[in-house]
Amino acid sequence: MGETFYIFKSGELKRKDDNIILKSLEGETKNLKVEMMDELYLFGEVSLNTKVLNYLSQNNVTMHIFNYYGFYSGTYCPRDRNVSGFMLINQVKAYDNPNKRIDIAREIVNTAYFNIYRNLRYYNSRGIELSEQMASIQRIARNLEFAENVQELMGIEGSIRRTYYTAWNDIVRQEINFQKRTRRPPDNMINTLISFINSLVYTTTLSEIYKTQLNPTISYLHEPGTKRFSLCLDIAEVFKPLIADRMIFSILNKNIITEKDFEKESEGLYLKEEGKKKILREYDARLSKTIMHRDLGREVSYRYLIRLECYKLIKDLIGEQDYQGFKIWW
C-alpha cells in the first residue's frame, strides 16, 4: 500500500522526468516520489498543470483538495480502472428497490449506533457517568426496526448523534463549551475538529471505494445527488465512531491539541497549520493501527477495514451475502 502525502506549502507542482516536484514560493524544492504515493492532500495554495494530473493518473494517485480553513473542496480521481457495468447495474437496482435500499440503510444506521454506544460504554466503564445517555440512545435505537423509509432512519440517526454529543463535555477533559453540532462556521474547538477529521474520513473512504468496483455516487442511506460522492457518507457513518470520534477524545484528553492550535476569525474558529499537521500525524497513525480480524484471522489496518466494508456491500449487491456492518468489539 502506498503512502499518503500532505502539502501545506504554497507553490507549484511540476512533472520532471519520472517525478513530481513541489517548488515552494520560497524557492525550496521537494521530490514527491510518486511511485511510493497512494494519496495526495493539498492544503496550500498550489498551482499545477495537466502534465501533473496525467502523471498522477498514470500512477493511480488520488488527490484531495482542502481550502485555507481546512474545509474539503474536492477530489481528483484517476480514470477508473475497476469499472464494472455489472456492479453499476446491481447498485442501481438495490437503490431502486425500496425494500433492499432500506435494509442496507437500516444496517448502516444500526452499526453506527452500535459503535457509538460502544464508545459511551468504554468511557462509562472508566468512571465517567454516561448511563443516562446510554439508556437514551438505546431507547431511540429501538425505533430502527420500525422505520418505514430512509427519511425516518435519517431522523433516528440524527437523534442518536445529538444524544451522543451531550456526553462529549464529560468525556473530554479540556474545558470546551460544546452544546451542539455546528458546521460552517464551526464555533468551538470540538466542532472544528469534527468538521476537519470527518472530512479526512470521507476522503479516505472515497479512496478505498475507488479501489473497488463500487460507484461512489450511488448510496442507500444518504440520498444520491449531483456533485457529491454520497456512498462515502454511507460507509463513513460506520467508521466515524472508531476513527474520528475516538481520535478527537484522545488528542484532546492527551493535550496533543489545545486552544493554542486554533485561531479565531469573524466567521468562526479554525485550525492553525501546525494544528492540522499534528492531527494528520495522528490520523495516519490511526489508519495504520491494526487489529486481529475475527473472520480473516489476520491483522488488518483500520484503513483496510474500510475497504473490507466495501467488499461486504458488494457481496450483498450481487446476492452472495447480506451486508453486516463492522461493529467495534473492544
Automatic annotation (TrEMBL):
<keyword id="KW-0238">DNA-binding</keyword>
<feature type="binding site">
    <location>
        <position position="222"/>
    </location>
    <ligand>
        <name>Mn(2+)</name>
    </ligand>
</feature>
<keyword id="KW-0051">Antiviral defense</keyword>
<keyword id="KW-0255">Endonuclease</keyword>
<comment type="function">
    <text>CRISPR (clustered regularly interspaced short palindromic repeat), is an adaptive immune system that provides protection against mobile genetic elements (viruses, transposable elements and conjugative plasmids). CRISPR clusters contain spacers, sequences complementary to antecedent mobile elements, and target invading nucleic acids. CRISPR clusters are transcribed and processed into CRISPR RNA (crRNA). Acts as a dsDNA endonuclease. Involved in the integration of spacer DNA into the CRISPR cassette.</text>
</comment>
<dbReference type="InterPro" id="IPR042206">
    <property type="entry name" value="CRISPR-assoc_Cas1_C"/>
</dbReference>
<dbReference type="InterPro" id="IPR019858">
    <property type="entry name" value="CRISPR-assoc_Cas1_HMARI/TNEAP"/>
</dbReference>
<dbReference type="Pfam" id="PF01867">
    <property type="entry name" value="Cas_Cas1"/>
</dbReference>
<feature type="binding site">
    <location>
        <position position="237"/>
    </location>
    <ligand>
        <name>Mn(2+)</name>
    </ligand>
</feature>
<comment type="similarity">
    <text>Belongs to the CRISPR-associated endonuclease Cas1 family.</text>
</comment>
<keyword id="KW-0378">Hydrolase</keyword>
<dbReference type="InterPro" id="IPR042211">
    <property type="entry name" value="CRISPR-assoc_Cas1_N"/>
</dbReference>
<protein>
    <recommendedName>
        <fullName>CRISPR-associated endonuclease Cas1</fullName>
        <ecNumber>3.1.-.-</ecNumber>
    </recommendedName>
</protein>
<keyword id="KW-0464">Manganese</keyword>
<keyword id="KW-0479">Metal-binding</keyword>
<keyword id="KW-0460">Magnesium</keyword>
<comment type="subunit">
    <text>Homodimer, forms a heterotetramer with a Cas2 homodimer.</text>
</comment>
<keyword id="KW-0540">Nuclease</keyword>
<dbReference type="InterPro" id="IPR002729">
    <property type="entry name" value="CRISPR-assoc_Cas1"/>
</dbReference>
<feature type="binding site">
    <location>
        <position position="157"/>
    </location>
    <ligand>
        <name>Mn(2+)</name>
    </ligand>
</feature>
